Amino acid sequence: MMFKRSFILRVLTTLVLVPLTLLLIWAPPLGAFYVLFITTLACIGTIEYFNLLRAKQIPAETVAGIAAGTTVTISGMFGAPGLTALLVYGGILLVSAVHVARVRLSLEGLAGSAFGVIYVGWFAAHMILLHELPVAGPGLVTILLVAVAVTDAFAYLGGSAFGRHKLAPRVSPAKTWEGAAAGFLLTLCAMAVVYAISRRTGGWPDWTLARYVWVGALLSVVAQIGDLAESSMKRSAGVKDSGALFPGHGGVLDRCDGFLFAAPALYYVAANLF
User: Fold this and answer.
1) Buried b (16+ CB within 10 A) or exposed e, 8-46
2) Who has greater pLDDT, 205 or 272?
3) What confidence tens digit (pLDDT) does each residue in 205-223 have?
4) DSSP secondary-structure letter at 80?
5) SS3 102
6) pLDDT tens for residues 163-199?
7) pLDDT tens profile 237-259
8) SS3 state at 101
9) Domain total in the chain
10) Is the dihedral of CA 183, 186, 190, 191 positive or negative?
11) Cα angle value 47/267/228 (rounded, 5°)
């Protein structure tokens, strides 16, 4: 019964989020709202991250970290990865200066604060940097959306239906190798479908079928690593979900962990292929 309720909530949340996100991705007049949407999610995700540090009783630089991470994310709108990298440096410099000024003397607090700027702020900025690429930006973001969403959905369904062998029992006991394989294989199929759509509509990367498939394979693997990494942080902090923004999914980090890890991978692959 709990599985059915959780799955129904996931489906309903997805039915609301996916059309909204696709509209923001593909409608040129809504480009600024796409940036605002991603930045808002990143800001909430950064707050959730620092809440995990607080749950772990780590003395982090919360205000400076949230401000720095959010600034890094929104900088993606300029389409300049060098500027975004500079702001990452500036953000880490800021949290370091605040940490020293407060004389906290905490290795965990300083490292945790700096990682928050990178993990949420910088990773999320690539969602915007992808969209700003002059060649096929909306198509690339859609590829990311499809690959990570399909991986997540079918890893969940495959693991629930056929899961026998634990993938990382100490990190996330519910995840299985069977689920991971199902998510991976269905993502390859989904990329073949996306390729077929790209042949009939504009705004997509002019890649071969093989390239669509191997990019999907890369994103699926990276997204699952991101999922496990976030699960590891939650387990260390002793919490079940990072937040409660999305019914059936939890918080922003719970819903976007795979996207955070996969967005930089796709951006640098695409930037080097164009």
Assistant:
1) eebeebbeeeeeebeebbeeeeebeebbebbbebbbbbb
2) 205
3) 999 999 999 999 999 999 9
4) -
5) coil
6) 899 999 999 998 999 999 999 999 999 999 999 999 9
7) 999 889 888 766 689 999 899 99
8) helix
9) 1
10) positive
11) 50
Joined together, the tokens standing for residue 127 give 């969602």
DSSP 91: H
Ramachandran region, residue 133 (left: φ > 0; alpha: ψ -120 to 50; beta: rest): beta
Query: What three-state secondary structure class fits 58?
Result: coil
CA-CA distances (angstroms) from residue 216 to 14, 54, 240? 20, 36, 29
Structural domain boundaries enclosing 93: 2-273
- Among candidate residues 129, 91, 118, the one with its CA nearest the CA of residue 268: 129
Q: State residue 103 phi and psi, 5-degree precision.
A: 50, 50
CA distance 107 to 96: 11
Pull the structure tokens for residue 244. 């409660």
Number of neighbours of residue 78 by Cβ within 10 angstroms: 13
